[in-house]
Structures are given as structure tokens and as C-alpha cells.
Amino acid sequence: MCVIPLALAPAAPAAASTVAPPGAGPTATVTLLTGDKVTVTMTADGATSPQVRDERGRPVGFLAQRRGRDTFVYPGPALPYVSAGLLDKQLFNLTELVEDGYDDAHSDRLPLIVRYADKSARVRSSASVDSAEKVLDLESIQGAALKAERSDDFWTSITSTGRSRVAGDATALGGGITKIWLDGKSKGALAESTAQIGAPRVWAGGNIGAGVDVAVLDSGIDPDHPDLAGRIVATKNFVPEFPIFDRLGHGTHVASTIAGSGAASGGVEKGVAPGVRLHIGKVLGDNNYGENSGIIEGMEWAARDQHAKIINLSLGDEPTDGTDPMSLAVNELSAETGALFVVAAGNQGREYGIGTPAAADAALSVGAVDSSDALAGFSSRGPRLGDRAVKPDLTAPGTEILAARSQYAKEGEGSYLVMSGTSMATPHVAGAAALLAAEHPGLNGEQLKQLLTSTTKQLPGMTAYEGGTGRLDVAAANKATLFGSGSVNFGYAEWTSPAVHAPVTRPVRYTNLGDAPVTLDLSASFTGLPAGQLTLSPPRLTVPAHGNAEVQVTASFDGMPFDQAFSGFLTATAGSVTMRTTLSAGQETERHKLVVTTRDRSGKPLAGTLTVMGADGTFEYVSVGATGTATLRLPVDTYAAWFSGDVEGVHGPYSKGAVLMPANGLKLDRDRSVVLDAAKAERVRTTTPDRADVTEASFSFSQQSRIAGGSNWFTMAAPDASYDSVWALPTGSAETDGFAFGTRWRLTQPALEIAGYDDLRAQHAARPLPAGSSRVDAVLAGDRDVRGKALVVRHDTAKKIEDEAAAAAAAGARMLVVVNDGAGRLAPWATSEWGPVDPPPVTVVTLSHDQGNQLISRLQRERRVRLDVTSNPSAKYVYDLQRDYQGGLPADLTYRADKSNLARITASYRNWRSDRVLQARGGRGAGTTMTSLTPAPAPAQGERTEWVTAGIPWSTQVTIPNVISQQSEWKTYRAGDRATETWLSPVQRPRLAGVSDTVVRHSGGAFQASVPGWGDSGTAHMGAMAWGLAQQSLLLYQAGDLIARSDDDNAGLYLTLAPERLPYRLVSENSRGEDAGPYSTSTRTEWGFTSGPVRSGQDEKPALIQLDYAVETDPAGKAGRHADLDVTPSTLPGVVGAGSIRMVTVDVSYDDGRTWQRTRLRPEGHTWRARLDAPRTAAFVTLRTTASDSRGNTVEQRITRAFGLK
């Protein structure tokens, strides 16, 4: 392992929650390929909180990176395989995994595409790979689609090959597998158009594509549409969870653009090739997404089983270099069957935007133009990633295309529907290809592609990277007898010093289908480069009848500007006939070698991981192998680098530490070498006034982009259970702008201490020893008398520690001490994320190899060994600390926390039942875009002191597992502050907080609202119930009319409001059952506010008055019969239209709302105080509160059984 882990004290329960933190944004748990579970939460401002646990619930060392909107989390064991190119990085892209529905809540298995070394390996692997079901055989790429179980068994089966693996080394996968990709999801790439491309002139000659087999792989079909009657000869469904019927409307639109008869329009809205035979494969679900493996299976069915000549793919995934599974399948099937795959370029509307499978060499990639032949703004442009080859190959009409509408689609009405996109351009080309296939049945797919691209209409001002050879002209292609190669790439030349490159020559072949020879006049140029950059030999070429001839095209790189890709055209003219072939070449920018050498604390080579970031935020990520050396070839720039690896810890040769070594300001204007020496690293640690153990720690590097428009880089690593220390390399006096190093610690009062043995871990939730100090005799395994003693055993991997604990308890042992037999600390075993169902029946402690063997040696030497043990079953204090370093790392990396510069919080927990409560606190330091939030035990009923670093924003989450979760706003404390927080107590009711924008109006009139229904009495706490325990209705009224309603456990509204400013009422109705407790059984809150137009690009939060309550209750939630009740109205920061509070009323009921009493209120600052006068027979208090402000905003809130009475 390699990446920052640490570790440090008793394991907290795992972090996955069945209750989403209210207002914090979506929370999801994803089991990665390694079997590790990652729980990730997106907060309102985009911060991400990843928590990583292995299958048994133990913390896992990981590397987390955020680039743009994507968050990647790499568990330590996966890093060498990722950097070696054996694992697709998207397997660890939490953002994509959740968006594709591959989180644990929506998918019980992880879909994969694997490629094998050879056919025999593929056959063998079907029986040898554990915990993965082969769902598809993908012969075209020598691979298969697998569904891996949510466990670590599959990972073990492909990585346990019997060879030792050194952290950081590139290595091989087992089972004959050469690479694993995420089986991601592609989507449809969504307009007078047959005349624009010349199709009617082809029809006039009698060619309608009769008999040509065309496959449409899309979202299904409306088989009963009049325009498709008699055209469909085969259908197959590759997304069985959806019917073949086209409920999206995309597939029917595409199919009719190719083959529609126009019957529903009296023959007007006719497709490009109305005589073809359609083979329909449904590869996109009704949600417009389909797994890539299913699309590959559909390709194989269309090309091999159906013998389709033309295969239309109006779909695509993210941009690639053409080496992804779908692109590989297109290339292989094209070569094998002679089919032509016509593929949408994509709708990203930017350079380097060509998605897969349009990026495939063999694909005929299609961009979109409008009816005036101008490039559509959405049309993806080249060059292709990697080699900068020209894509798209051509363009076709793709805006405002009218074609058949599926009767099953929600959009539109009648028989036709208008759509736009490269999806609409693609079937124009597929239909044109079918017309050519009917005219020239002997041509294969590649020749049809060349014929189409050679004969396009040139579009002045449009580069090849934008529009390929031009806009489709099927009339010209149909009458042509001459065509040439469609595209030539001279490569992207490596930089050398001096910059001298041999010219590169590529052949371009012309084919003459006619009966007479044709002489071509040739010319070639790159856009933006002098004419002499390209030479032709010969410049005049005669192509024999029914034959071929080649011209040699030579590109010179001399004088070609660096760091640019250039496109151009080879033009061949014979009389009125003009053909074009696209050309591309480029020369990379000046580059130099950066050699990084890493050494451990004893001077030996150190393996690990290295990330190097340029000024624009782009980065290289590589593994440093056992040699301790990595060589990178990078453009001239100033770089920041960060290395992490394993070193010896502080407890002896078998202990483990993690070292972090940054190197900033690396100016690479020549070859350069850097040595990162862990011997010069300093320990990163903290000290506290009270004895405390680290229970959570995370470390982050961030680097702001140093150029406008660049990406910022953030990396976070969190501790692993086996490490005892973290070390970092000081960067010296020089500071780097935009660089920050953050340290985050949680420390708690030690649960268990043994004098002289500090490298221990106590099993969470095991039966604790009584609080206080005691002396316990220790004995070795095999001793006949263990009753009341500490039984010391060596760790045996063949035995479960929990079984040994049960045996020790049965023998009467007071404590079980397990000595690790390997490196680092040993976590006894995992508990449930919400505490064990069956707690260990005896106290369990693990000792590291070094200290454990010292104890065993003592027992072997001495007649009697007595251990001095101190037990603290319930921590009385915790520390949440954050220390940030700007610009660099100083020589002293010890954070000395002191009560005089911390803030003190007295936290009171009021669970109405005395069972488990979990608490987590997230901190936000300089440069931080991710925070670590790990729920840990808190008192169910009681208080503790919680110290926090001053000057840092903190947000706290408190949870009763599987019942309710509460979250506070972000709050910053000053040094010396003394604050109180009360959690889970009455009065619980709907409450919004500034931690999230839950009710907001956007520019354009869009209005969205979600109201967390169960905030507790703590100020500005938002609360949400576990799924299924509560019901909520959210209603929006305007002038007495109900205009929107949502009924769900977590109801939400989204609608467009009228453009003028109008009054509205938002009503939240909530109820919950007895499992949630006896209080706040139902609530109804009605907010009155006004809302109007919002400026473009702006959001507006309406002024919804919030009500906070305070009443003194006992741990069971009961108040005195004459207790004071405080009500504090307020509005959230940043709202629009708020006024000052003018009127407050509080009514109370002691019979669940059948009768009411108006209370007398005493204003005290911003609070109104009432006094209860409860009859002896009353058991509960029901509240009805109103408030209004000077701007006309109002609130009325009713809470049934808000709290109990003593």
C-alpha cells in the first residue's frame, strides 16, 4: 500500500448511513471494484465528503482527487493498477458511478467490461474469476461484460496471482485479464433536410435503397407508425428491463429519418432511403441510457447475425482516444464483416469533444449543420484525443429535423416530432450510405465511407476538425465513379532539441469505378500553415478505369508551430468533379524530462505514488516502483509535485508510517532531477492538553491554477487502520502561490490504556472494563487458568478474532489481547456501521508486532506479568482540530492545540431512548473542497466537552442510526468561545438552514423546494428521517389555487412560476410513526411569501420565517408543567424580501389540538417567552405558533405532541 494512511486508535463504526444528512446534498454509498465502500456527500457549495471502509467496515487508506465536477477516490491497493493502465479511472469516479446509477442503493453489482489476453484466457476465465457473473461474451474485443458482486472476492481473484507485489509497481491482473473498464452508460445524442443533402435527385433515378439491410441501435421503435409499415424485418432488445417499444421517441425518429415512407404525411416527410430493410436493436433504455456492453452486444448482433450493411449509432459516451471498448468493437466488426458504422460525433459543442464510439478509426463520424450549412453550436468538434486525428468525418443536417413520433413518447403530439442533435444528422448519413450500397452492392463499408467523405459539399470557413470533409451530398456521391481515402493523419511529432523531424509520407489511394481513366490535379494545404508544408508526388495523377492509383503526400514538420494540431485538405479535381481528403498533423510543445527519485528514511529506494501538476491544473499521475525512480516527459512549465509512500513508523521495524513529500516550484525548462528524501521528513502530529488518541485524520494538498481558466487541484488522503504515524517533507522558506496543506484530526479520550503499551487498538463496542484503573494479570494462550485475566494470543489468520473472543469469554477471561503477526497495527474486526448487533462478550485489544512480542517475551521470562489498565467506556471529551499551511510546509509540523486558542462546546445529547447515537463534525480549511466526516459514537443521553479549532468553519451531523439525522449550519468559533449545542431534543419540526439552498427561485422562473421535516431544538439544525419512517406532503398555493404538490418521504417541488411578483403559500405537512419516538408525531407549517422575476444568472431565496424553540426537558423529553417555552423567529442569511418581526403568537393544547389556550408572551431580545400552565392529567404539549414581519412574510406552525410533561 502506499497512500497516506494513518491510523491511529480505536476504530469508529463505518460511515455508510441510511439517513442522508439533511440539506447537505445527495449522499450515496458505492462499493468499488476493490470491495471497499465509499460514502460520499455533496454539500451545497460542491464540497465532497468521502468516507472509505473495507468490506468488514475498517478504515481504508485512499487517495481522493477532485477535478472540475468529478470526484475520484482510489483505495491504496488499486493505485498501481490504475497508473499501469490496467484499470479504467472511471471505475473510481464517484460522480459518474452515482449518476449512472451504479451506487449500492440502485445496483447490487458493479458492471464491468474486461479484455483478455487471448481467446483461451477468455474461455478459462469464465470459470476462474470469483464473485463475478459473465453476462455477455464480447468476442469483437476479445472480452466480456461482467457483473461483479459488491464484495472484495472479485478483486482478490484478479490480483492474487501468487506473486509478491511491491507498492507502486506496475503489475498484471489475474485470470488472463489485460484491462478492466467501467461498463459505463451511453446516451442518445439527440433537424428540411433530405432535399438539403440531395436525396430527391437520387430517388428520381429510382434508387430508394431497396433491399439494403440497415440496423438502428437506439431506444427502440414504434412498430405501428405508418411511416415504418413494412420496413422492420427484425427486432431485438438489449435492455430487457425496458420493453422494445420506444417510449423515448429517439429511436423512432432516427429510424424514420433513414427509412420513413412519409405515409402519415401523404408522402411528404420521407426518409433518406425509404426502401431499406430495418433491423431494430434497443440498446438505450427509456431513460435514454444504455450500458456500453449492451451496445457492443447490439453491434455484434447487427453485424454478425443480421448481416447489416449499415449500422446507425445515434448515441455516444464521453470523449476518448479511440481505444475504449466500444471503439475497439467498431474497428473489429468493421474489418470482420465489412459493415459501415455511422456514429454521432456528440453534442458537447467543443474541441476535443468526439465521444465514443465516434472516435473509432473505422467509424463514419457525423457532425451537425443547420439548414444554412452552418455548423450547429452543439456539434462536437475534433481533434480526437490522443493522436489529434480528424473527427468528425463529415457533417449532415441535424437541427430542427422533423421525423416520425413514437406513439409511446411523452413529448409532442401527432405523427411527427422535431428534434435536434448529431443524433438527427447521423441517420441522414446512414440513409445516404444505404442508397450508395444499393447503387454499388460490391463496395464494403470502408469504401462506402470513402465515397461519402470524398464527395461532400465544401463548407467555406469550416476546418476539417469542425466539419470533416464537408456536408453530406448524397446526389454527388451517387453519381460519382471516383473516390479517395477519407482521412490521413501524419501524427503528432515529439519535441526534440534541436527540433528536427524527418518528413512523414502517407499514401492516399484513389479508386475509379468508371470505364475510362481519369486524370486528377492535386493540391494540399494545412489551414493556417504555408503551402510548402505539404508536397505531393506526383502532383498530377491518372487513375485507370476500374483501378486504383496512389499519391504520396509528405508533411514537413519544419517550421510547424509547437503545441498545435493542424488540419487541412488534399483536393483532387477532374473537370467539374472535386474530391477532398482530410489531413492532420501537429508538433508537441517543448518538453523535458523530470526524473523523481524517492528514498525512505534509511536511504533505500521508496515505492509509492506521485502526482505532478502543471500551472493550468492538468496533472500526471504515476506509480513509483521498487527502484524508487520515476521519469516523466512534460511540457515546459512550473510544476507542483506530491509523493506518498510507506515508511517505518514510530514503534519499531514492524510499524508503519506514511510519508508525504511535496515539491513545489519545479521549473522545467530543461531536463531536471529531483530527490525526495524521507529522512528529511518531519512527523505531522498534534498535541492536546488532555490525554487523547487520534480516531480520525485526513491530509490534503491543494493547488490553485496559476493561469486563467485552468483547473484547481485538490487531493485528500485519509488514514488506514494499520499506520501509527504520518510524516511530511518541509518545503523550505520558498513559498508557492496557491499551495495549501491541510491537516484534520479528531482525538478522543482513550477508551483503554495499558501502561507501557501505547501501540494498541481497542475493539469498538466490545464489553468494556469498568471505568477507572485496575491491574490485570496477563497469561499466554495455553495457560490453564485464564479466569479474570488478560489472555494473550498471536494473531492467526486462519481464525476469526471474534471466535477467539467468544472462546476467551467462555473460559472466563477478562480481556483478550491479540498480537499482530504482520506489519502495522491490526484492526480486530469490523462492526456494523451502526454498532454491532452482537457485541464482543469480552474486552478485545490488539497490539502491534513489536510491542506485542515484547509482552510475549515478558510472559515467557517472568513468572507473573501484571498489566496496569485504565478504562474510559464513554469519552468525556473530544478534539476536532484543523491546521492549514499556506504556500509551503514549515520545519515544525506539530500542531500544539491549547484550550486558550480553541473553542469549547458543551454538547448535550437527548435521544429519547438510551441507545446508540453517532456524531460527526466536518471542518473546512484553506483550499479545502472535500471534508472527512466519519460518524463516531456519542452519548445517547448525556453531555461531553467538544473542543474545536478557532477560525475554522465547522458543521456537525448527529444521527440515531436508521431513525433520524440532524445537521447544523457551518459555524466559525473564536478562540476562547464557550458554546452549547443540544441535539435530538424536542421540539422537532420543519427547519431550513443556511447549510443548503433548499428553497430557491432561479432566473427564468424555475422554483424548487425541499423542506427537511424534522429539525431538533438546536438552533439552525435541519433534520431528516430514515427512509420509510415518515411521510411528507409539500404544497404550493398562489391566490388560493394549489399549483404544485409532492407526496413522498422526502417531498420536493420543481416548477416554473409566473413572471410577475405574486404572493405564494408553501405548506409542509409531516407525520411519523411510533418508531421515531413519542414526540412531534405530526406537523403542519405554512409559509407566506412573495416572489417575482430573478435577474439572469441569479438565484433568489424567498424570506421564509423560521421558528426555533427552547424548553428545558429531562432525558426522556419531558418538561415541567410550568416550564418556560421560548420561541425565536428568524430568517436565513441571503434571503430576499425579509422584514423585521412584528407579531408572534403561541397557542398550546394539552389534548392533541382539540382545545387551545393563548399564551401570554414576554419579548426578550429576539425571543418571545411563554409559560406553560399544564393540568395534572396532561401528558403532552401541542403547539400552534404564528409570526409575521414588516414585509408581509408569515408563518403558521402546528406541532402535535411537541414534547412530554413530567
UniProtKB/TrEMBL annotation:
Gene Ontology BP terms: proteolysis
Keyword Glycoprotein: no
Keywords: Hydrolase, Protease, Serine protease, Signal
Keyword rRNA-binding carried by entry: no
Annotated ranges, domain Peptidase S8/S53: 209-459
Signal peptide span: 1-16
Active-site residues from the entry: 218, 250, 423
Pfam family, one: Peptidase_S8
Region called Disordered, residue ranges: 922-942, 1072-1095
GO terms assigned for molecular function: serine-type endopeptidase activity
InterPro entries: Peptidase_S8/S53_dom (IPR000209), Peptidase_S8/S53_dom_sf (IPR036852), Peptidase_S8_Asp-AS (IPR023827), Peptidase_S8_His-AS (IPR022398), Peptidase_S8_Ser-AS (IPR023828), Peptidase_S8_subtilisin-like (IPR050131), Peptidase_S8_subtilisin-rel (IPR015500), Peptidase_S8A_SAM-P45 (IPR017296)
Family: Belongs to the peptidase S8 family.
PANTHER family assigned: CEREVISIN-RELATED, PEPTIDASE S8
Protein name: PA domain-containing protein
Organism, as annotated: Paractinoplanes atraurantiacus
